[in-house]
Specification:
Blueprint (H helix, E strand, L loop, with lengths): L1 H18 L30 H5 L3 H8 L3 H22 L13 H8 L31 H10 L41
Helix pairs in contact: 4-5
Length: 193
């Protein structure tokens, strides 16, 4: 999985580098863009992994990817809820309110809306603590682990942490490699080989 994150980092850095050009040579000629044709959404990733884990089928996953956020809650919270129930049933357990204090229905409702909120007056974070949840997303935020903790961590965040005979469902065990982000644009350090 580290190699995947590395490849993704390189791809993002390459895209940012290649897509930049010397646009300060404006000639005064207006630039026109052709927006004719039909455009469709193919995928969305405000909250990576949620659709993959909770959609329950490839058909639902593909449908979720092309559904506008304004209708996702109505169309998918029930599907996500049923899938979460099935996961817990597989382990002979039931959902326990999570670290955010949300019950099962509230959790799947929150997660079925695939938008990335931005809090203008709060720190940007996918999750720092219960007061900074889904207020944006930093490069160093481990969104998969946070999502798994919200789904399977119970009220302490450690319910299914691999200890005391429980399976580890609260982490994918892939962390951000040290030194891959920076505080200046493009916020990713060049890849080293």
């Amino acid at each position: 999985m580290k190699i995947f994150k590395y490849i993704l980092t390189v791809a993002i850095a390459a895209t940012l580098t290649v897509s930049c050009d010397n646009d300060d040579d404006f000639t005064g000629e207006p630039v026109t863009t052709d927006f004719t044709g039909t455009f469709t959404t193919q995928d969305q990733m405000g909250r990576p992994g949620i659709n993959t884990v909770l959609s329950g089928s490839d058909a639902n996953k593909n449908n979720f990817n092309v559904t506008t956020p304004e209708t996702q809650l109505a169309q998918f919270s029930g599907i996500f809820n049923n899938t979460l129930v099935a996961y817990y049933n597989a382990y002979g357990a039931s959902f326990e309110n999570n670290i955010l204090g949300l019950d099962q229905g509230q959790t799947t409702a929150v997660l079925s809306l695939d938008v990335l909120q931005v809090a203008q007056n709060a720190p940007t974070s996918y999750f720092t603590d219960t007061s900074s949840f889904l207020t944006g997303r930093r490069l160093e935020d481990d969104v998969i682990d946070v999502s798994l903790i919200v789904l399977f961590g119970g009220n302490t965040g450690a319910r299914f942490d691999g200890m005391n005979g429980t399976p580890n469902l609260v982490s994918d065990n892939v962390g951000l490699e040290p030194g891959v982000t920076s505080t200046t644009f493009p916020y990713l350090v060049p890849a080293s080989f």
